[in-house]
Amino acid sequence: MSGEKYYLLNRLNKNISLHKVIFVFVACLTLIPIISPPMALLLGIIIAQTVGNPYLNLNHKITQLLLQFSVVGLGFGMNIQEAIHAGSTGFTLTLFSITGTLLLGIGLAKVFKIDKITSYLTSVGTAICGGSAIAAISPVVQAKEKQISVALGIVFILNSIALFIFPLVGHALQLSQQQFGLWCAIAIHDTSSVVGAAANYGNEALEIATTVKLARALWIIPVALITTLAFKQGKKKVKIPYFIGYFIIAMCINSYFPWVQAHNQIMVNIAKAGLTLTLFLIGSGLSKKVLHFVGLKPMLQGIILWVTISLISLSVIINL
Which residues cross the membrane (predicted)? Predict the structure, then answer.
């Protein structure tokens, strides 16, 4: 090997190493308690637009597992009776919002002449629980990689915006902890941003938002069954969010075993740190390629769906 080639290869290896070191350093930085969920998300977006995410191929899987672990951990700080009450309060609103969002999405697809499957995945992600719903419904409608990527891109971009906007609107309108928690669960797509925004607002908002959102996630099952009939694709495997069962077990432990409650706060603190890191990883996945890949019409559909469900649900919650 010539000296020039060796020099260039050595320099490339150093750049790659520095690239990874910066990413890992910033990721570890988000575990410090002073870094809030919105700050972690912003750091992730900055990393994505500058040095990039060197582990992008693993990012989705790691994010999914870390989010599930964090949600279960938060269950150790919640009371099962209060959770049941919060879930029952949001049931009717959840039913109407999911139905309305899916119908509006179908109508917008015809108006904008958007690909049927891409539009449907975006609508399902907005209506139920973001990326998890898209992942669950994709095999049912036999979605292609590009269709899934566009829908996920829309959801993640709008999630990022919601994490910053919702707490500001909540404080401006002087929403109570209960009102804000319920609004987050109904109007923000993904569980990570729901929990992140609610945690930034208060503990009561966090408990209500997490419980209602996870109850909402179970609607993946009936929606998947209806989708199978509507798209006439035959029987396809649906990814059921089983981790919700572990979340319920964690709440039961916290509610009915007082002798372990003294140690539960440790799990809650670890879970909050995990959630913050999750949001950093989500932000680091919003590369320039993702932003350009989405397209104007699908993004416009996603924005209209999101703004509509946000404003209507906020109006209903304020007047409850």
Answer: 21-48, 83-108, 120-141, 147-168, 180-202, 214-231, 243-260, 266-287, 299-318
How far, in Å, are 18, 109, 153 from residue 302 at the CA level? 37, 10, 10
- Using alpha carbons only, how large is the chain's radius of gyration in Å? 20
Domain range for residue 100?
3-318
- Quick one: pLDDT band at residue 101, thresholds 50, 70, 90? very high
The number of distinct structural domains making up the chain is 1
CB-CB contact of 74 with 266 (8 Å): no
Using CA atoms, how far apart are residues 122 and 297, in angstroms rounded to an integer? 12
Between CA 279 and CA 70 the distance in angstroms is 11
Structural tokens at position 39: 């700050």
| pLDDT of res. 237 | 62
Tokens of 38: 């919105």
Distance of CA 131 to the CA centre of its chain: 6
And the tokens for 199? 């945690």
Across the range 114-141, mean pLDDT stands at: 87
Listed residue (129, 110, 128, 109) closest to 119, CA to CA:
109
pLDDT value at residue 169: 95
SS3 sequence of the chain:
CCHHHHHHHHHHHHHHHHHHHHHHHHHHHCCCCCCCHHHHHHHHHHHHHCCCCCCHHHHHHHHHHHHHHHHHHHHHHCCHHHHHHHHHHHHHHHHHHHHHHHHHHHHHHHHHCCCHHHHHHHHHHHHCCCHHHHHHHCCCCCCCHHHHHHHHHHHHHHHHHHHHHHHHHHHHCCCCHHHHHHHHHHHCCCHHHHHHHHHHHCHHHHHHHHHHHHHHHCCHHHHHHHHHHHHCCCCCCCCCCCHHHHHHHHHHHHHHCHHHHHHHHHHHHHHHHHHHHHHHHHHHCCCHHHHHHCCHHHHHHHHHHHHHHHHHHHHHHHCC
Distance CA(244)–CA(266), nearest Å, equals 20
